[in-house]
Amino acid sequence: MKNRKDKIAEAKRVSGADACVECGRCVAACPMAEMYANFSIEMSPRGIIKKTLIGDPVVEDKNIWYCTECNAGTDTCPQKVSCRDLIRKLREAAVDENLLENAKTCKCCGRAFVAIPVEDFVFARLKDEPPNVFGVLDICPPCRREIYLLRNA
Amino acid sequence: MTEQQTTEKPIAEQDFSLNLDDLRPRHAEKRHLSDYFMPRRHSFILFHPDRCTGCGACEMICSTRNVEKVAPVSASVKVVRDEKEGKNFSILCQHCRKPLCLPACPTRAIEKGDDGIVRIDKLFCTECGLCTMACPAAAPIKDPGSQEIHKCDLCEGDPLCVKHCPENALTFTRGKAFRWIKGLRWTSQLISFLLLVMVFIGTFCYFRTGSVSFACPTGTLQNIASSGTVVLVSVSSALAILILTVVAGRLFCGWICPFGFVLDLVDKITPKKLGWPSFLKSRMTKYGVLAGAVGGSYALGFQVFCTVCPIGTLCRSYGVQSFFKSAELAIIPALASLEIAQRRSWCRYFCPVGAVLGLTALLRLIKIVIGAKRCKKFSCIQCAEVCPVGIIDADKLREGLSPKIPMTECIMCMRCIDRCPYDAAKIRFRWQKAVPGEGRI
Known about the structure:
The complex is a heterodimer.
Chain A: H1 4-15, H2 25-29, H3 32-35, H4 45-54, H5 72-76, H6 83-96, E1 103-105, E2 112-115, H7 116-125, H8 141-152
Antiparallel strand pairs in A: 1-2
Helix pairs in contact in A: 1-6
Chain B: H1 3-8, H2 20-23, E1 44-47, H3 57-67, E2 78-82, E3 87-91, H4 101-104, E4 110-112, E5 118-120, H5 130-134, E6 141-142, E7 149-150, H6 160-164, E8 170-173, H7 180-199, E9 206-209, E10 212-215, H8 217-227, H9 232-248, H10 251-256, H11 258-269, H12 285-300, H13 310-317, H14 323-328, H15 331-336, H16 345-350, H17 352-360, E11 366-370, H18 382-386, H19 394-399, H20 415-419, E12 425-429
Antiparallel strand pairs in B: 1-8, 2-3, 4-5, 6-7, 9-10, 11-12
Helix pairs in contact in B: 7-11, 8-12, 12-17
């Protein structure tokens, strides 16, 4: 069992976070700015990379749960730092430590599959649509496909 | 930011930031003149689960288009297999009429084209996967290797998976070309309107030539209540329409009723509905109106409802005009104006003629079934939209279950059967258990 320090070190290694030059291109490309009204340096990819590098307690931070794990930041980074991989590894570390209050678990398989702030965003976007009786957002996509199969085949 | 605000604030405090609406405005749906007469028929891929063997040929051929190598994980279609139940299903994008992925996308990379195909613009897609999160079938698939999102775009009108399916489990169609029930129903309504209102004046209420006679069942009930005597001829002549109802459901309401024809015409000129107050939303009201009409006739000694009946008024309207008659005619625009609240509001909630036919329809021989396994459920729901009396449970369909249609309320206009592109809505005998797509029929 790896401890937290090892996990953060691995996250840094996988994402290449040490190479970050804090240019802020990832912040400019980040869709979170459009998604959340309270977008700030704390939740931006640059802020999270910086916090990880200076050794702040980032695993129990709520701000790592706003990311949609998209590819925009990685695409624009001049140093090829993958903020997605970093946040993914940090979330994995948080899930390993049972810090699940910001992660949504699937009703069927129990896997943590989406972050609560991201889910809230999708809910807010879909609130004008007809009431979703299927309970789509409670079930992870693979389980959803399984249910779809059992109902329809 | 509105004009007013910009004039009030000094320039230093003004917000000049651009948001997504300025950068990428939503693509407005273009409406052609023909859309008002006939809905557009978009192409779609239909999947037949009973033919699928789960071989995965569709996945393989699809991946060659996405990544130019055979790698089923990079396909836009996902074959889900359940070995225990022996079921296979290939999950495809359904190209919903109102896609849920479209509002969920934070960068507006998803758009529905005029040809009905929902496309992901690779230039704007950030591969976040929120479309997969919003889709009820989780049809946009994340490639585990390159992390790209792949979604079916119907190969721009020439799908490879359909060509390469060895069992023909996938078919590519555009649905029905000609909706003949629609034309038949409007013709029938027009002819019966002309006959009942202009040729055989007042014949719907009571009509007799020689041994042939016909009477309105609600009028007959009131007649019996008011006079206290049962005239066998009038009862037997009222039976004609009841027998029609037993055999074919409330066909009278949808195909013959002249006031229903007026309501359908009014509906054509009032496409926007205001909604009906929920405390009045009881379909039992019409049975109350019927009981009130019969009871009132018994108490007052004349046929109470017949004096204000819109059908009767309409049938008696053409002819000698007197002041009383024109005052009586005011009931027709008054009740037709209910149409701005909901379609066929009068028929749904109040009509006592419909109430008698509804009670008779308890002895019905036929029913309408909608097989949710054959149709596309949440992506379509056209049947619930076209139903003039609103008895098709759209929430049930969204869940993927076949809705039960209360035949006492159904006016047998057959709009659902006409509209369904997947042949899932059918007329069946009452005792037939199977619905389309679920077992043998």
